[in-house]
Amino acid sequence: MIDAATIQDRFRARGFIVADPFATALQLVLALEKPLLVEGPAGVGKTESAKVLAEVLGTRLIRLQCYEGLDALTALYEWNYPRQMLRIRMSEADGASIEQREAQIFGETFLLKRPLLEAITQDRSPVLLIDEVDRADEAFEAFLLEVLAEWQVTIPEIGTIRARHRPHVILTSNRTRELSDALRRRCLFFWLPYPTLEEEIAILHARIPDLSARLADQIARAMQALRGMPLQKAPGVAESLDWAMALLSLHRDHLDAGTMEQTMGCVLKVREDHAVLHAERGRLDPVLAGQSSALAPGGHGLETDFGYGSVSRPK
Prior knowledge:
The chain is an alpha/beta fold. It folds into two domains: 4-78 and 108-191, P-loop containing nucleotide triphosphate hydrolases (Rossmann fold); 197-288. The protein is built from 15 helices and nine strands. The strands form three sheets. A five-stranded parallel beta sheet has the order 2-5-8-1-9. Helix 1 (4-13) packs across helix 2 (20-32) and helix 10 (197-207) crosses helix 12. The protein starts with a helix and ends in a 27-residue tail after the last helix.
């Protein structure tokens, strides 16, 4: 069994900095064979953590993207109707009975596996990512509870299929709606907030080694200040990385007012948020001046050891 320290090392080798609490949560997923519900703001690395976990374990990642109207059959399987019709036409002249034809067309050869069925029929435990489960409706959530409890599904034409190896399950949620108590009881839980200043600098260096210390510091401080503003969509770590890559591609080694104006489209994705930035531009002046006081009050200093790509503080 992989311990938390090994998880941290292997995640770091793949550019994902993870703190002790999150590494321990992932260790418990493997040890207890329980799903992990990861909640937090958009863009803090919830989905990425599942992808990296699959790489660390050397196993397959199977992703179920949830959306409004998602139903059980879409998540489980469907029949390959064109191939079934072709087989029926080809077998019309062979004199087979109706029962024999049904046995031919309703077999695994004509079954299209969707993520949940795919996950329980693997030769080794995959990582099953159930992404943005809060976007699915309550009916699908109830079905999902049944699958997570039994790890078996019944296909009327074939019978019951049981999991060969139980998947390692990561569910993510942006809290667009409240999940049921029943689903929460079924899962371990972890909250992934925005990273602190030090954590974000470490993430930038881990993912983009060519980034200068000065530019990484400026980007991280600017992001902390932006998240302290009343924005409709606060930028996440994904935006930090996009911004850093954009600045590198423009051969910038530091942030100034002109560069920030030209590249803010990498960070703020809502028109009204640009107006908010214009009104509160003074909060970014210390960043552009290279001062260390840019962290706005309330700039996500809480829960410092739990963020995406968070790092343990030296004691």
